[in-house]
Amino acid sequence: MINEPDTRDLLAEARQVLLDSLAPELAGERKYQALMIANAMGVAIREIEQREQGEPETTDRSLSHFLAGHQLPDNPEQGEQTLARALRERRLDGSEPELRLVLRGMTEARLRINNPGYLKSSGQSNTV
Known about the structure:
2 domains
């Protein structure tokens, strides 16, 4: 079997070339576009890493468990919408500690993908 790079490795290498070799040669709008592409590639890399670590499943299980405990419909593809609807309709108490843990876990999972620097700067990079 040929040792092939995986998707994450390919994206990481392409992103590094874009940032190190191509972006410095650009100016203005083109440089901005290259940096946006590099940022999108970084998000994709982090999504792959989170999937490999089972992060989405952990967050989904936590939400599922919470919804089931409150007799709310537990459709895995609509869990967040169910939670949002229940909050809007005031069927859940926003001060409930378990709800806060679920919301915090969901928020931190998103931040680890979209803005990991925020968690690092706030000293919360390893909490869920």
